[in-house]
Write a structure and sequence with these properties.
The structure is a homotetramer of 343-residue chains.
Chain A (H helix, E strand, L loop, with lengths): L1 E4 L5 H13 L4 E3 L7 E4 L5 H8 L4 E5 L19 E3 L2 E3 L3 E7 L6 H14 L3 E3 L17 H14 L3 E4 L6 H6 L4 E4 L7 H8 L5 E4 L6 H13 L5 E5 L18 H7 L4 E3 L2 H4 L5 H10 L4 E5 L17 H17 L3 E2 L5
Parallel strand pairs in A: 7-8, 7-14, 7-15, 8-9, 9-10, 10-11, 11-12, 12-13, 13-14
Antiparallel strand pairs in A: 1-3, 1-4, 2-3, 5-6
């Protein structure tokens, strides 16, 4: 249960409700919301107690989430939340583009990509240093050295960076290199040990949806992050696994309007892995923003045929520029603004 | 194999190739294309014969489709084909809205809906007279009387009409009432007997994708229609069945850019059955047009709570007006035009 | 709601309940059950009326099905029902083997197959005269002539026959040739027009599960058959469509024990279409009977490489013999008997 | 490519081939096979080199796997491999039962369960100390203390134990407590960091299939284990995610005969998570062994209603005894033996 108190309710009144709950073995969490107290009961509240609390005059509204997600539930905030990645704000009516190579592949090419990403008008630079690969014999990423190359490239063009973390043991490296946003990949969405560790890094997290994860499970994983210390979660839809094999995955845009109702978290869409082929990506990116996405994440490479992973789905520089321009238009026609390029 | 002849190739030269094929037991079909002869070999062509034919100077291009679809393959036409439903043209750079109630429910309400559909700016009126219902005890539609009510309402507002046909035996009723477009429902997409019969009615057909049909199978069903006499096929994506149960179905927009490459047929999207809830539909309709759909098909009802079927996913009149306005904007920003209202 | 009356309840008492329901607009259906009156209310019964009826002393038990299936619900019969196909009994503790070619391909080969099917110990002969084919250019079956060849072959070896019907218009041909059991294919499971027509033919029906049909929808289709006149339905699981492409389909044996609880109808399993490769079939057939199937249906061909359809999944004669022997053992170790070969 | 050398081929001849490969940048791995040298080329071998090698007289057979799995490929061993868990042997014609509670819940109850597991005739004791839970607020397991309780219980009844590891950091605890087999859960099947770490522990690994993992991806994860030092992998099918929601998951037995052809690894089936309801489990366990499984893994609890997780799918002690008895019969009728209870 989530309670909305009347704006201006005294702290002691909220505290009284919390203590009543705690006395009944029910854990509570207070929203960071500034406009009014909002309180979530983590555990199930017995009917009698729920009724009693709801009748208090300072409690003006109460919500019972479908699942046991509380801190990421829409009602836990007055407005959709805004997550900051460096100086870039995700959510709250702005549209953002995240772009970069699938893998960080070397200092020089990383810098080259960083420039083209910035020039195309994207606001966040991405790049994989640790790569989850289906085969043990495939290129597994440059590791720490990749983080260093990515961060340096980001600084050179004044863009914040995001990179995937696969293991809690690598967390110090991400913190040392001041990676601005930590990405949890689709295959690790229910790696609960990793979620708990990453939640405590003090960094925003881009949480990809698992290949066969329901929206419900996805929000539970976001709740893990929030419950263990990270309220700055960005959801990333990247396509689900279905019977259809004509495309690599099926981009699930149907859930975008639903997520708006279920959670306050911002949502970005990565159309690259669903399309699997670069030329299918631009229409899907357009559609994602039209459906309400707060941002798009795509892969780009100056010479896709040389990419060490997923070259088939990498956009060319000119295609990225066009895609960003279209995202800008879609932001406008859906009553939002495209995020100003940093600096 | 599909052959493109040099524009202006003499009929006899094309005929010579056909006869060579027929002599080898290979059926051929000639495209209705005006700009140049285009010829499809229905059956597999032996390598030696294929090489010989490709070397003829009048053959300038040849294509080998992935599947055995030929007549609906992109290469069987110079440009994407345009299908006329009454005076309305689907495909070829215009965007169209199809709207109406799930079921035809009576003369008066049908007329009421027809007016609001026209006033909202939609160009085609839909309504179900024969309803495929999961339960034998649910309302099964008004049948012939429903067709009459639908057509009369369409004529009253000067809009062509589309309605689902479930059985070849009902074909005369559809023809007698001059239903402008015949719809094959998702559950009948591989009812091959129905496809063969409907193909011979001389009417355009709206072919919904089956709930678990691959794009490949869908195009084969379109090929049935074309092979048996109906080249005027409109594909309709309406959501596929996946593991996700938060929404009724998963709208598969990922395939839209792919369909542009695989087939010349126009594609409309019905977001209602995927969303399952009316308020999720407008963003999905926007996204569909942004992804390249040639039209959208939605359900509308003046009083959804009174609808005899699928009331939960029926738009209100005002919502339809807003949705059509947004489709118009999406048509513009994707370099197309919204079809002029009829009359 | 389904009511069980005390054994020996007078007809008038049952009639009184029915009239009370009818007066409230609730349709009722009486079970053919001999041991006691069992009554199904087709429509939803208001709580007050339900309570009143349940309190009558002659009503000893009542059930509320999950869906609106009534006549196929387990509670509509005392014991699992037994369906007769010619002299063969499906359900009720016997295990049956159905075998034959995918397509009927000629009088001679059909007779050859019939002999090997009988010699292998199978009890029912199958063969497709009307073939639902994905491509319009594939072999579509011999039609009426195929029915004649199938029936003649069945008579020659004294086995009843089953064949797929795709169209209500073909029903007279099936009746004229005295086809013992009509098969509804997976693609037509929700072809409601066909279900209604076939239900009235006075023949048992083998109802295949749709490729993406839930158990709930499948039972609704069985309910169509029962509601329109055919209580002799045999369910046939044949594999569902999933993300896994290593096998043609995924055989869903998980639902077998569930079906035992939800319906009184017998269930057979066709492992051929799931496996897609002949050598995978025997272990799956064994597993099907072990999981509780009342029978197995497989395809067999004396020379699979010559088969006009699905040759890759056709068993060789010797493989069929071994498979039947194993089914016999599985019947025994699960406390059932293998059906005695006919004649 | 995998090469089979003639039995008795001299080590130097094999070494010559390896060096030729290494000189071309191709990594090689030698099979532990005793009967003859078997060599896997990890990387793709150019056609010319492949031909040259295949023509050597000491090379009698060569195989090209479908994927890039090598060490787990069927051809990398003469016979299906046998994996030892303590004194218990999995694979090679014996059938094994693994049983225990979902979670380790306390010293006393663990001991109680251990006795009933042994008395029922199972050979391996399971129990979760670290629990992957969808919600952060659910019971997460007793951790190290749980491992201690599990091992002590196993020793009390003389059964080896298996438990899930979710994090490489917990590996020392598993080794310290001498957990006989490490389980990788479905959600961590593609947690490659965990796979690499666990592979080096010198323990056999039970690798569950991911909820939406293809057979191909599953074998790649097994290949990770083998490539990083653990050849003792037991595959565990536990149900996949499909559109069907009547059961918790869909047990995929269709792949069992396929796995026999693709890999030499033993396969066990866990029917509990697919069924989701205890009373559906026994028929599915029977079917699993009938389809060829080398073992079954089930959950059991003396008082399921008190279980801290997944009580609905826990068998009662008597049900386990019956299930083991049936597995014994299925082993016999499929030409195998049921593993002798330890001690």
């Amino acid at each position: 249960m989530i309670l909305h108190f009347r704006p201006g309710t005294a702290e002691e009144q909220v505290q009284a409700v919390r203590e009543q709950c705690h006395a009944n073995g029910i854990r509570t969490r207070l929203s960071p919301e500034a406009e009014r107290p909002i309180l979530a009961m983590v555990d199930k509240v017995p009917d009698a107690l729920a009724q009693e609390i709801q009748q208090r005059p300072e409690v003006v509204d109460s919500f019972v989430p479908k699942g046991a997600w509380r801190l990421v539930h829409r009602a836990f905030r007055e407005k959709p939340s805004v997550v900051k990645v460096g100086p870039v704000r995700l959510g709250g009516g702005q549209v953002v583009a995240i772009a970069g190579p699938c893998s960080v592949e070397g200092r020089e090419v990383m810098l080259e990509v960083a420039h083209l990403v910035r020039d195309a008008g994207a606001q966040i630079l991405r790049g994989g240093a640790y790569k989850p690969r289906t085969s043990p014999y495939s290129f597994q990423g440059f590791g720490v050295e990749g983080l260093s190359q990515l961060k340096d490239a980001g600084q050179a063009v004044n863009l914040p960076v995001v990179s995937e973390i696969m293991d809690a043991a690598a967390l110090p490296a991400f913190v040392d290199h001041d990676i601005d946003c930590l990405q949890i990949g689709a295959r690790n969405m229910q790696n609960f040990t990793l979620l708990k560790a990453v939640a405590q890094a003090g960094k925003p997290v881009l949480l990809k949806r698992g290949l066969a994860a329901t929206v419900d499970e996805w929000l539970y994983s976001a709740e893990y992050l929030a419950a263990y210390g990270c309220p700055w979660v960005i959801l990333c839809e990247r396509g689900i696994r279905t019977f259809e094999s004509a495309t690599r995955n099926t981009l699930d845009l149907t859930i975008l309007p639903l997520l708006r109702e279920w959670t306050h978290l911002p949502v970005v869409v990565d159309p690259s892995h669903a399309a699997g082929i670069a030329r299918l990506i631009p229409p899907l990116a357009r559609a994602s923003v039209a459906a309400g996405a707060d941002g798009i994440a795509v892969e780009v490479h100056p010479r896709p045929e040389e990419a060490r992973s997923d070259g088939a789905q990498a956009l060319l520089p000119g295609e990225l520029t066009a895609l960003v321009a279209e995202a800008r238009i879609q932001a406008a026609v859906t009553g939002r603004t495209f995020h100003q390029p940093v600096g």
